[in-house]
Amino acid sequence: MSLAADTAVREEGGKRLATLSRNWEIWGPNGGYVSAIALRAAGQIAPPDHRPATFSAQYLSAGQFADAEVVVEAVKKGRNAWCINVALSQSGKRFLQAQVWTTNKSEGPTKQDRAMPEVPAHVALKSWLELFERKDDDGPHFRFWDNFIGKPVRQRQVNDFDPRGSVLEEWYRYLDFAPGVDAFLDSARALVLIDTLPWPAYCRGLKEQPDYIAPSLDVTAWFHDLPGRAEWLLAVARSGTAQGGLIHGGVEIWSEDGRLIASGASNMLHVARG
Question: Fewer Cβ close by (within 10 Å): the C or N end of the chain?
Fold first, then answer.
């Protein structure tokens, strides 16, 4: 399994196609994974000196593990910024629509008031696999998590209540990934985590495991810097707001050397299990 291979967009029969892989399954194809396909599709038509600036997507329905048609259109071609629309469809039904801003801008102010949380470096931590042996009664195992090595900052059980509230701090390294090769693929690493982590962060602040799920309605990511050669990314997720059937969460992604790589947020819809 590979993020690069599983998000590839190819041309075939006069169309752009992508194959949704079961390697990224959580309640169906993971939304962040599908968004990563859309981000890479935008990168195919953006000028070669551009990088992603903003990504915003709406999840219209769940995709299927099969080929999807990818339609990409540049709707604004500025000197320093392009706006690109992306739609993914299966059997004539659109299940994701996205808008991507790209830019080649490199000059401007440099400022970062936010500092990376003071947490142990990943080399000082153990992975989930090292900390906990999986048991038969742990519940379903989603293949999505097999794409990473994850190292929690706080050594705790998977479903433990966190007295700090709905907060998650973890280091992640993608398996079978060569960083620093493609700006859109590199940024896709952050996008997948921004989409995925609000829900597990929310569950950390609950004293009992919920009898409902909360699929994402949308996701927005703002890209501040490129990860470059950084292999490990620190994700800090907070999801302390739930009201009126909606759960909101935000995520920051940091590099090993303290750079804020990306930030983003999403709204999730309360759905009863049944």
Answer: C
Strand-strand pairing, 81-90 and 67-77: antiparallel
Confidence (pLDDT) at 2: 93
The values of phi and psi at residue 2, to 5°, are -155, 135
pLDDT at position 273 over 70: yes
Three-state DSSP at 4 gives helix
Cα(174)–Cα(176) distance, integer angstroms:
7
User: Distance (Å, rounded) from C-alpha 30 to C-alpha 196?
Assistant: 8
Asked if 267 and 248 count as a contact pair (C-beta separation under 8 A), the reply is: yes
User: Exposure pattern of 39-71 as b/e (b: 16+ CB <10 Å)?
Assistant: bbbbbebbeeebbbbbbbbebeeebeeeebbbe
Q: What is the pLDDT of residues 23-57, one digit of tens each?
A: 999 989 999 999 999 999 999 999 999 999 999 99
Task: Provide the β-strand partners of residue 148.
Answer: 174
Query: Which two structure tokens, joined as six digits, stand for 185?
Result: 């693929």
Between 136 and 170, residue with greater pLDDT: 170
- The two tokens of residue 168 are 């998650």
| DSSP conformation letters of 141-170 | --GGGGGEEEEESS---TT---TT-SEEEE
- Radius of gyration (Cα) for the chain, nearest Å? 18
Distance, CA of 274 to CA of 56 (rounded, Å): 30
What pLDDT digit, counting tens, does each position of 44-53 carry?
Answer: 999 999 999 9
What integer pLDDT is reported at residue 136 of this predicted model? Answer: 54
Residue from 221, 132, 128 nearest 168 by CA: 128
pLDDT tens figures, 234-255 = 999 999 899 999 999 999 999 9
C-alpha torsion sign, points 98, 266, 231, 126: negative
